[in-house]
Model the fold of this input.
Amino acid sequence: MGNAIRVLLVDDDSAIADLTATYLERASDRIETVVETSPTDALAHVTEGAVDCVVSDYEMPEMDGLTFLDEVRETAPSLPFILFTGKGSEEIASEAISAGVTDYLQKETGTDQYAVLANRVGNAVAQYRAEREAEEADEQIRRIFERITDAFFALDDEWRFRYVNERAADFFDCDPDDVLGEDIRDAFSVGLGDEFRDAYREALETQEPVTIEAESVFRPGTWLEVRIYPAEDGLSVYFRNVTERRQAQLELRDTKQKIEALHDVAARAVACETEQAIYDLAIETAEEILAFDLCTVDAHDDGVLVTKTVSKVVSTDGYYEETPVEAEGNLAARAYREGESSLVGDLRETDVVPAESEYRSALSVPIGDFAVFQAVSKEPNGFDEDDRELAELLAAHISEALTRVRTETELRAERDRFAALFENVPNSVVRYEIDGVDAICKSVNPAFEDVFGWPEDLIIGDEVDDYILPADQHHQGESLNERVKRGDRIEGEEVNRRTRDGCRDFLLHTAPAGNGEAEAFAIYVDITEQKERERQLARQNERLEEFASVVSHDLRNPLNVALGRFDFLAEECESEHLAPIGRSLDRMDSLVEDLLTLARQGQVVDATDPVSLSSVAEAAWETVDTKDAGLRLTEDVVVEADDARFRELLENVFRNAVEHGTTGSPPSDSDSAERTARVEVGPLDDRDGFYVADDGPGVPEDLRDRVFDHGFTTEDEGTGFGLAIVESIADAHGWTVEIADEDRPNSTGTRFEFSRVSVHEDESAQR
Done:
């Protein structure tokens, strides 16, 4: 039974839990299961230490699996915990791993999963037990090492030496045999020390272990940690030299005090209103807290480092007044360029040229992008790593203070610009103060008066929302005011407001006014015409959908009936009239299909993605009967488009080029029947867009204005919708399509050019 694995199964579905238990015990004769449907009841087993592993479901009504994991970890931090859940997702798996589950397994159909689970349980428990055994072994080894490495001696109840190990004898500078049987008080009457004597006496009298840390009288300057273990017949004494630890503790205490003092400096820096005051504070701190004798701060100004302040005891003749940032052989410039601190123990062993030849060591620390702090010493190795870390902490506080001062300066400048632009900005602006959830008007600009129709002297001091907010949107207004009060900046939020001309749509922007935390500017940008255009486009899409539905249902259904009846008729009789009827029905079918395509592809594109022109062109080429034609791709570019509709556009252009030679006219008798057409696709050179060109006969001048017309075709069998669909898809993307002039150098065939409609062209079209 020592190898048995006790598994606690936790699942609110008892049937699933029992099934899992059954299969686990079948999968391994070492596994013993305990089933609980309540996580709370299951915790009792964990508390009692009666289980080796927990297998838990995730989604349970009382608490989920990760919450149950937290409860288990409170009692058994390293107990194996496997999340076995049917609610699987990358998000849950990531969260489970972050929470510290031992393993994560998603429930599946079939019984193979239980063998996997049993294997995971076995591995987890084996690792858990191995780690515990290793910890116990480590603890035992640690105790042995403590006894072996410490100096040790034993006294009887008369304080006489019974045993002295070599380390203790070395410390006492004696031979162990020489002191055996001698009273420690007589052997070291001067060197024993009152603290140690009192500790021995206390241990003997109380029969309780005593540990002290004190300076050795026998060896002044050496600190000892002494552990005294009493017995009825004497004492066992272990001691070790802790002088270095003691010194480290003192240094750590000193460093801690310096760190606390540096944090106080950060609070003092808040009161500084100028950058120069902050630089002066940095030098003062380096002198008083870090005990640096010679230091300076050089600030970056237009490509050079300029000395802003130096130690009071140092003559400025010993420093460069200006240093180019790109200067070689200069520690301050190098630290600023690289953004990293440097610690030089001996300047004479480097390629650095100090400002004073007497300087031997230097510490350089960048202060963000603002400046460089530098301390120098006339002694080699005048600074250590602790000095570097403390100087970096000081630099971090100074950088934060400089950021605040510059931010406040920029903010004041921004507020001044707001004030200057307030009167002349073409958009409506109101300055207001938040009182609770109300926006109290402080001032408005002329554009606000003109758009909303309320003069400034009438609404100042009143709640501005009462004048411009529609009656059913007061809750929205209060919500916006609460966000501004919290310090949020509203950027381009669509709102509806009452104006002189009725309700209109605006983009709302807010910015702090600078006269108080609760004061702000609200800027209203009128987008009513844009929103109306969007609504018109939406209605257009709806009409196109309705049209497509009518074509699909009202025309397609009777056409399908006619095609079916025609097939029956063709089987039952022979007539010279059947072939023309069949061709007419096929043409009607093609017309209906193209009408549907035209209606759907003409809808406005709501969302686009960056797509590869070459990739889409190759995909479109594969779906077109290209006969013996070839495709050439000159250069790939990224096009913002709806992938599926873009592909439909290229398919129609390719089909037109290959099958109809662009114009739809058949080749003349003089053309070779073996001629192979070539279609070329690439980006435009002079503007944003792309082209599709072929080497066919081209488009006659008198047909150029008609090739994109709905239903235009030069063939009896054509529907005339191919290029119309191309133009509709291009228009839906906001592109223009045109046939390039034939006077291009070395030009043959036809070249369709697609480019985005410019804002100017779009506005002109609207006018």
The chain has 23 helices and 28 strands.
